[in-house]
Amino acid sequence: MKITRDTKIEEIIRNHPETVEVLEKYDIRCADCLALFTATVEGGARMHGMVDVEQLLKELNEACKD
């Protein structure tokens, strides 16, 4: 699964629970958030003040390879 800006965070966590650590590194703690089911990677990153979405995408995709 290639994670993109438009991938829903819920889908990422469901299919690749190992990505939770990456999200938490950037203070994106979605497991308890109501936006979990609607937020995309880009939307979640922006909601949490993150500007470098490309870096987040890189790390999420790397985490999925393990």
List keywords for this structure.
66 residues; mainly alpha; globular; 50% helix
General description of the model:
By secondary structure, the protein is mainly α. The protein has one domain (9-65). It is built from 4 helices and no strands. The protein has helices at 9-15, 20-25, 41-47, 53-65. It is globular and about 25 Å long. It starts with 8 loop residues before the first helix and ends with a helix. The mean pLDDT is 88.
Number of domains: 1
Average residue pLDDT: 88
Element string (H = helix, E = strand):
HHHH
**Structural class of the helices, strands and pairings?**
mainly alpha
Distance between the termini: 13 Å
Counting DSSP H or I runs of 4 or more residues, the number of helices is: 4
- How big is the Rg? 10 Å
Could you estimate the helical fraction of the residues in percent?
Answer: 40-55%
**How many strands appear in the DSSP assignment?**
0
Shape: globular
Largest sheet: none
Low-confidence stretches: none
Sheet-strand content, in percent, reads under 5%
Question: What is shown here, in short?
Answer:
By secondary structure, this protein is mostly helical.
Strand and helix map with partners:
Elements: H1 9-15, H2 20-25, H3 41-47, H4 53-65
